[in-house]
C-alpha cells in the first residue's frame, strides 16, 4: 500500500485537492463497472475508448475516494471529500506509479514478447517451474500499455519470480513497457505476421519488440528470427536453433505419431532428448523456448524432460455455453489463481440472464490453509461478487469454507461431486467453473452443458467489444449509439450479446419483434429496447415489459393510442419512422403536418426519436440520393420538433452510414452488421470477425472415378477421390445452393469444395488433395463475404440463417 501523499510526488501533478493525505491506495481502478474493494482504491480517468471522466460519479458512488484526472473542471465539488490529482495524462500517471512499485522488487523478472506464443509459454513456464519458485505472472493476456501496468501492480514480496507479457501494436510502445517491466531476462517467442498493422516492415516490428531487452542480463531467442539482426546492446545471448555453435543446438525434431514430437538437443557438450506432447510446429517451438528458459535457470536435463512430457494444453479463453435446465455455464480452466479468478468473477457478474450466480471452485495452486493473505483475498472476492452458491472441491478450501460469507457445499474431489451432482440445483443460474487442471473440471462441464451435435458457432466477445469501440471512436462525443440485436443478434445469440452491450453502455438496443424484447427483459436487460415491427397483438407485451415501439403509419399510431387509453400510463416512449426514400415503412414527408396535429392531441405519447433509413449509403453512384435523404430527414424532424414543442433524438446512419457519411450522424447512429465484424465499405477499420461456424469430419470414404456422391447422383467424380462427410446441412442453415462445388470450406488450412447436393443434416466435401482425418475441424465460411457472393446473397442472410439448433459458444480471452 502507498499513501496518497507518496503517490502525489510520483505523479508530478498539475494540481491537487487532498482532503486526507494519509489515505492508503492498494487497488487500481479504471472502469467504474469493475470496482470491488473500493476502500483503498484509486480511480484513473482514462481517455481511451470511452472517457473515464464521464463515470466519476459512478466510481464515487461505489466508494472510491481517490481520483487521478486529466480534465480539470472543478470536480472537487461533485467528489466531495475525495482526494483528487490532476495530471497531463492519466495512463502515463498510472504507468509511473507502477514503475515506482516495480522497483521495490529484486527477484528475477522474465519479460516475454513475440507475435505468437507469449501466453502459452508464460503458462507453461508456470507449470514447469512452480515446484521450485513462487511465480507471479501476467493475468491472462494482459500485455498492452494498460494491461502491463495492471499486471505489474500485482507484484509483491510473496513471490520470487515474475513472468510478464509485453505486446505492441505500433511503433514507440515497447520503450514505455520496458521502463515499467525492467526485465532481467528477456524471451522472444516468435516473429510472425500478427500485429503487422502499425509497422512499415517486419524489420521495423522486430526492432520495436527488441526494445524490451535493452537492459536484460540474458536474452533467450530462436536464432532463425534474429539471424541477420544487429542487436544495439550486448546482453548475454542464449540462442537456440538448428545451427551449430548456438547456446542450445536442436539436433533433430521428429514427429513420432499424432500425439507427440521427439526433440533432441545438444547443450554444454551433452546430448539429451525431450518428448513434447504436441505435434504442431507452434507448440513444439513454444516447448523449446521453455527448455531454453529452464536451462538458463539451471535445471537438469532429466528434470526438464520429465516435466515437458507432462505439459498440458493451455485453454486460452473463457467460454460461455448454454446449460441444462435454463442455466448458463462459464467454463474457465485457463488458470486457477486469485487474479484469474477475479477476472472470471467480473465476467460472471456481467451476466444478467439468470437470477442466481454460482461458483464451482477447486483448490488453488499455492494456497494452503496457512496462507492467511491469500485466503483473506479470496474471502474478499467471494464477498464482493455476491454469489448465491459456492461449491468447493479439494482438500484445502473445504477446510476453510466457514470463513466465506457464501452458502457452500464441499467435496473432497471431482468424482465425489459428480456422484452427488443430482442433489444440486443449477436451474435459473449462471455457473462459473474454475478448477485446476488436476481436478478435471471438463467432466463437470460435460454434465452441465446442454447437449447438441458437433456443429458450433463460436462468438468472440473480445472481437465484439473491439468492433464496438472501433465504431465508437468514429463518433463525436455527443452522438449516442443504438445497436441492433434483431434476428437473434445476426445469428450470434440474444441475451449473451445484449449482456455484453449493456455492460459496455450502449444507449439503445433494437429488436424486430416484441417477443425478442420480452426475452431480453427476462434475461435482465434494462437498456431501452426499440421494437421495429410492432403490431396490435404485441401491444400488451410492449407496455408490460417497457419496450418502445417504432411508429411508422397512422394505422399503427391510432391502434397503439387506443390501446394505451385506460392503461394509466403517461408519456409512453415512441419512435417515429419517416420514409425519406427507402419506401419500406414510415410516414411520408407530406404527412408530417398531419402527424404534428395528431401528436399535439395525444399527450399520452412521448416522441423519443425520429429516424429514417438510408437506402444506398454504400453506393457512390447514389451519393446525391443519399444526401437528399439526409437533408429530408433534417427538414422533416425540424418541422416535427417545432410542431410538437420539444426535441428528440434523430438518426439515419446504420453501419454503412457510420463508415461513409459523418454528416448523417445527427444525435444517434445504429450499428448493425459492423458490430459482428463484417465491414461494409471501409476496409481500413480494424474490426475483427466475431463469429466462426465450425463443424467436423464424421467419415472419410475413398471412391473410384466411376462413383457418384449424394442425392440425385449430382456429385459426379472425375478421378479417384477422397470424400469427407461433415455434420452440417440445410437444417443448420447451410444453404442448398452451396452444393456441387459452389460452396468452399477450409480443412486444415486448405480450401475444399462441396460435392453433391447439400443434405438436411450433413454434406460432403472433396478432400482428395488434403491431409485430413475423421473428427478434424472444418471452417464452414472461411470468408463469409466470398461465400455469400457465391450464391448471390449477402453476409446478413448467411449469419441470420444459422439454425438455433447449432450450439453457440461464447468465449472471452
Features:
14-stranded mixed sheet, 813 residues, 40 strands
Main sheet specs: 14 strands, mixed
Please tell me what the overall shape is: globular
Strand residue percentage: 15-25%
* Rg for CA atoms: 29 Å
How many H/I helical runs?
A: 25
Q: Helicity, in percent? A: 25-40%
Question: What do the pLDDT scores average to?
Answer: 90
Which spans of ≥5 residues are poorly predicted at pLDDT below 50?
none
Distance between the termini: 30 Å
Total beta strand runs: 40
Which structural category do the helix and sheet elements fall into? alpha/beta
Write the layout of secondary structure elements.
Elements: E1 2-3, H1 4-11, E2 15-17, E3 24-25, E4 27-29, E5 41-44, H2 56-61, E6 66-69, E7 83-86, H3 90-102, E8 109-113, H4 118-129, E9 135-137, H5 145-152, E10 161-165, H6 173-181, E11 185-188, H7 202-210, E12 218-222, H8 223-226, E13 236-241, E14 248-255, E15 261-267, E16 270-276, H9 281-296, H10 301-308, E17 318-323, E18 327-331, H11 338-350, E19 356-362, H12 372-384, E20 389-393, E21 408-411, H13 414-419, E22 429-434, H14 442-448, E23 456-460, H15 461-474, E24 480-484, H16 486-490, H17 495-503, E25 508-511, H18 514-522, E26 529-531, H19 539-544, E27 548-551, H20 554-564, E28 572-577, H21 592-599, E29 605-611, H22 623-644, E30 649-651, H23 655-660, E31 668-671, E32 691-703, E33 708-709, E34 715-716, E35 721-726, E36 744-747, E37 750-753, E38 763-766, E39 777-779, H24 784-790, H25 795-800, E40 807-812
Amino acid at each position: 500500500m502507498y499513501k496518497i501523499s507518496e503517490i502525489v510526488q510520483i505523479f508530478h501533478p498539475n494540481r491537487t485537492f487532498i482532503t486526507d493525505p494519509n489515505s492508503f491506495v492498494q487497488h487500481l481502478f479504471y472502469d467504474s463497472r469493475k470496482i470491488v474493494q473500493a476502500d483503498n482504491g484509486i480511480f484513473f480517468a482514462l481517455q481511451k475508448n470511452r472517457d473515464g471522466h464521464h463515470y466519476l460519479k459512478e466510481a464515487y458512488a461505489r466508494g472510491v475516494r481517490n481520483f487521478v484526472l486529466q480534465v480539470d473542471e472543478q470536480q472537487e465539488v461533485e467528489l466531495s471529500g475525495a482526494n483528487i490529482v490532476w495530471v497531463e495524462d492519466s495512463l502515463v500517471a498510472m504507468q509511473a506509479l507502477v514503475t515506482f512499485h516495480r522497483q521495490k522488487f529484486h527477484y528475477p523478472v522474465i519479460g516475454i514478447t513475440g507475435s505468437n506464443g507469449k501466453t502459452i509459454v508464460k503458462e507453461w513456464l508456470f507449470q514447469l517451474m512452480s515446484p521450485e519458485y513462487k511465480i507471479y505472472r501476467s493475468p491472462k493476456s494482459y500485455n498492452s500499455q494498460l494491461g502491463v501496468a495492471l499486471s505489474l501492480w500485482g507484484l509483491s514480496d510473496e513471490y520470487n519470480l515474475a513472468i510478464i507479457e509485453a505486446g505492441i501494436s505500433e511503433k514507440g510502445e515497447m520503450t514505455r513497457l520496458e521502463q515499467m517491466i525492467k526485465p532481467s531476462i528477456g524471451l522472444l517467442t516468435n516473429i510472425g505476421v500478427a500485429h503487422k498493422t502499425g509497422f512499415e516492415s517486419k524489420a521495423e516490428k522486430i526492432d520495436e519488440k527488441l526494445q524490451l531487452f535493452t537492459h536484460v542480463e540474458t536474452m533467450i531467442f530462436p536464432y532463425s528470427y534474429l539471424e541477420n539482426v544487429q542487436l544495439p546492446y550486448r546482453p548475454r545471448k542464449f540462442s537456440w536453433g538448428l545451427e551449430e555453435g548456438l547456446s542450445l543446438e536442436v539436433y533433430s525434431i521428429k514427429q513420432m505419431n499424432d500425439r507427440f514430437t521427439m526433440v533432441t538437443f545438444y547443450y554444454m557438450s551433452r546430448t539429451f532428448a525431450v518428448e513434447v506432447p504436441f505435434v504442431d510446429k507452434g507448440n513444439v517451438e513454444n516447448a523449446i523456448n521453455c527448455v531454453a528458459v529452464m536451462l538458463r535457470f539451471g535445471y537438469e536435463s532429466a528434470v526438464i524432460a520429465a516435466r515437458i512430457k507432462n505439459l498440458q494444453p493451455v485453454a486460452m479463453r473463457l467460454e460461455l455455453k448454454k446449460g441444462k435446465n435454463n442455466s448458463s455455464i462459464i467454463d474457465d480452466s485457463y488458470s486457477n489463481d486469485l487474479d484469474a479468478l477475479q477476472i472470471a468473477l467480473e465476467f460472471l457478474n456481467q451476466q444478467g440472464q439468470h437470477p442466481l450466480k454460482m461458483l464451482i471452485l477447486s483448490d488453488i495452486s499455492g494456497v494452503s490453509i496457512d496462507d492467511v493473505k491469500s485466503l483473506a483475498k479470496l474471502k474478499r472476492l467471494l464477498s464482493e461478487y455476491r454469489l448465491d452458491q459456492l461449491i468447493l472441491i479439494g482438500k484445502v478450501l473445504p477446510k476453510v469454507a466457514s470463513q466465506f460469507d457464501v452458502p457452500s457445499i464441499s467435496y473432497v474431489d471431482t468424482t465425489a461431486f459428480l456422484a452427488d451432482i443430482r442433489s444440486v440445483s443449477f436451474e435459473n443460474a449462471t455457473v462459473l467453473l474454475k478448477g485446476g487442471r488436476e481436478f478435471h473440471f471438463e467432466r463437470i462441464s460435460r454434465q452441465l452443458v446442454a447437449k447438441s451435435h458437433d456443429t458450433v458457432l463460436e462468438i468472440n466477445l473480445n472481437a465484439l467489444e473491439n468492433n464496438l469501440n472501433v465504431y465508437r471512436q468514429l463518433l463525436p462525443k455527443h452522438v449516442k449509439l443504438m445497436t441492433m440485436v434483431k434476428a437473434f443478434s445476426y445469428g450470434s445469440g440474444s441475451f449473451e450479446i445484449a449482456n455484453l452491450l449493456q455492460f459496455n453502455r450502449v444507449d439503445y438496443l433494437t429488436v424486430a419483434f416484441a417477443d425478442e424484447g420480452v426475452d431480453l427483459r427476462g434475461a435482465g436487460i434494462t437498456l431501452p429496447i426499440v421494437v421495429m415491427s410492432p403490431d396490435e397483438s404485441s401491444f400488451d407485451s410492449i407496455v408490460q415489459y417497457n419496450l418502445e415501439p417504432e411508429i411508422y403509419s397512422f394505422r399503427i399510431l391510432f391502434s397503439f393510442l387506443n390501446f394505451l387509453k385506460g392503461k394509466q400510463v403517461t408519456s409512453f416512449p415512441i419512435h417515429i419512422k419517416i420514409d425519406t426514400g427507402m419506401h419500406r415503412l414510415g410516414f411520408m414527408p407530406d404527412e408530417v403536418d398531419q402527424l404534428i396535429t395528431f401528436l399535439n392531441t395525444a399527450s399520452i405519447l412521448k416522441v423519443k426519436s425520429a429516424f429514417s433509413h438510408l437506402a444506398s449509403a454504400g453506393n457512390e453512384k447514389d451519393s446525391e440520393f443519399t444526401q437528399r435523404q439526409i437533408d429530408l430527414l433534417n427538414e422533416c424532424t425540424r418541422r416535427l420538433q417545432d410542431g410538437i414543442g420539444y426535441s428528440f433524438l434523430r438518426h439515419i446512419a446504420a453501419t454503412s452510414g457510420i463508415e461513409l457519411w459523418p454528416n448523417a450522424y445527427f444525435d444517434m447512429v445504429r450499428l448493425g452488421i459492423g458490430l459482428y465484424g463484417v465491414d461494409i465499405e471501409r476496409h481500413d477499420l480494424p474490426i475483427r470477425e466475431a463469429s466462426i461456424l465450425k463443424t467436423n469430419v464424421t467419415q472419410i470414404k475413398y471412391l473410384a472415378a466411376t462413383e457418384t456422391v449424394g442425392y440425385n447422383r449430382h456429385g459426379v467424380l472425375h478421378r479417384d477421390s477422397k470424400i469427407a462427410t461433415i455434420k452440417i446441412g440445410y437444417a443448420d442453415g447451410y444453404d442448398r445452393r452451396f452444393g456441387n462445388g459452389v460452396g468452399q470450406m477450409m480443412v486444415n488450412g486448405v480450401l475444399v469444395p462441396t460435392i453433391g447436393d447439400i443434405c438436411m443434416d450433413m454434406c460432403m466435401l472433396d478432400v482428395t488433395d488434403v491431409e485430413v482425418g475423421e473428427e478434424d475441424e472444418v471452417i464452414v465460411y472461411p470468408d463469409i463475404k466470398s461465400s455469400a457472393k457465391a450464391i448471390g446473397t449477402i453476409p446478413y442472410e448467411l449469419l441470420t440463417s444459422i439454425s438455433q439448433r447449432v450450439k453457440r459458444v461464447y468465449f472471452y480471452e
